[in-house]
Amino acid sequence: MTTADHDGPAAGRVDVHHHFTAPAWLDWAEERGIVSREKLPWWTRWDLDAALELMDKAGIGTSVMTVAMLGRFRDRAERRESARVALRAAAEVVAEHPARFAFFTPVFLDDLELSRWSIEYGLDELGAVGVSTRTSMDGVYLGDAAHDRLLAELNERSAVVSTHPMDVPAGKGGSGGAGLPGMPPFVCDFLVDTTRAAVNLIKGGVLDRYPDLTFVLPHGGGFLPYMADRLELLGGHLTPAIEPGRVRDHLHRFCYDTAGPMSPSATPTLLTTVDPGRILFGTDWPPTPAHVVAGVTVPALDNDPALTEGQLRGINRENALRLLPALAG
User: Fold this and answer.
1) How far apart are the C-alpha atoms of 99 and 181, rounded to whole Å?
2) Which of 55, 229, 233, 312 could serve as 60's disulfide partner, Cβ 3.0–4.6 Å?
3) What is the pLDDT of residues 270-323, one digit of tens each?
4) What is the Cα–Cα distance from 17 to 64, expressed in whole angstroms?
5) 225-250: per-residue pLDDT in tens?
6) What single-letter DSSP state applies at residue 58?
7) CA dihedral for 245, 218, 104, 72, sign (positive or negative)
8) pLDDT tens-digit series, residues 201-214
């Protein structure tokens, strides 16, 4: 089957958690000695035909790509060129398959000027549907006072902010903790990093100060829904203290994707704790392999006894279209 066979209108699930490492970016980075393909993990070998094949098997109409760039960069100009190459590649995929793909443009918690450029280039010029960011950078968590200027600019645009962890949790100023020996960070530590970022956003009253922002927390919100009552009860011990009402308010204003998988073990807690209308379908492909997405996570979600038919329709598509109305076009 050729890629052209996939070009019709898409009315299936909307996947808000699709990692995109552009082949063109890998070419660019290898030429400059920034990365070596052979040393990168398997999930960096993004392929259009493989993406469309997985989407068709899993009933995914549209995937919203998070644009990945790996490696360390010496200066802002090189980092900006890296982002330009990756974003241009994402926009080309969307141009060729407008019903099947969209993308988030990245913002960088450690470089607000580069973030401003990415917002203007990605959102204004290339048509990104929102922004993506790491939950922490060098131990500084999303929502830190250093991010206020960036969050204010995104708030003016009523931006959707897709978040994702990358590091083993560490204290402010650190670059990653040791983790548990023998356990990759994506098994548990990523969920801790997401939870810490969410608590930091709550603690700082970010959604009160920037009410037009929407944050999407991956992997069902990490551990946040599970420990929400604990945070309400013990929030007074934080500095500054968190009032119980703010915890509950923010819980219902975040969005949560189902990558992980969520069903069936986490669903009852999530449905009890958050607004079901803010739960979104996510695969975490290709780090989560295609056979797991199509053979395990999707059937588990579709047959989850805790979900009503209406809630499942919302999770699979309708909630995402409300959040990202450009996808309906």
Assistant:
1) 43
2) 55
3) 999 999 999 999 999 999 999 999 999 999 999 999 999 999 999 999 999 999
4) 7
5) 999 999 999 999 999 899 999 999 99
6) T
7) positive
8) 999 999 999 999 99
Whole-number Å distance between alpha carbons of 5 and 8: 8
Name the residue type at position 175: S
User: Which CATH code fits 14-134?
Assistant: 3.20.20.140
3-state secondary structure of 114: helix
- Can you tell me the mean pLDDT for 99-104? 97
In angstroms, the CA 28 to CA 228 distance is: 44
**Which residue ranges make up each domain of the chain?**
14-134, 138-257
Residue 123 to residue 109: CA distance in whole angstroms: 17
Q: How far apart (Å, rounded) are the C-alpha atoms in residues 284 and 191? A: 13
**CATH tag, 138-257:** 3.20.20.140
Q: Residue 162 pairs with which residues in a beta bridge?
A: 132, 216
| Two tokens, residue 328 | 């309906």
Maximum Cα–Cα distance across the chain: 59
Given a contact cutoff of 8 angstroms between Cβ atoms, the answer to whether 287 and 186 are in contact is: yes
pTM > 0.70: yes or no: yes
> What is d(CA 44, CA 327) in angstroms, rounded to the nearest whole number?
25
Mean pLDDT on 166-182: 64
**In contact, 187 and 163? CB cutoff 8 Å:** no
With 0-12 / 13-18 / 19 or more C-beta atoms within 10 angstroms meaning exposed / middle / buried, residue 38 is exposed
Report the range of poorest mean pLDDT among 31-45, 86-100, 309-323: 31-45
Contact (CB, 8 A) for 133 and 103: no
What pLDDT, on the 0 to 100 scale, is given for residue 73?
A: 76
Locate tokens 């070419």: which residue?
27
Residue 262 · residue 223 · CB < 8 Å: no
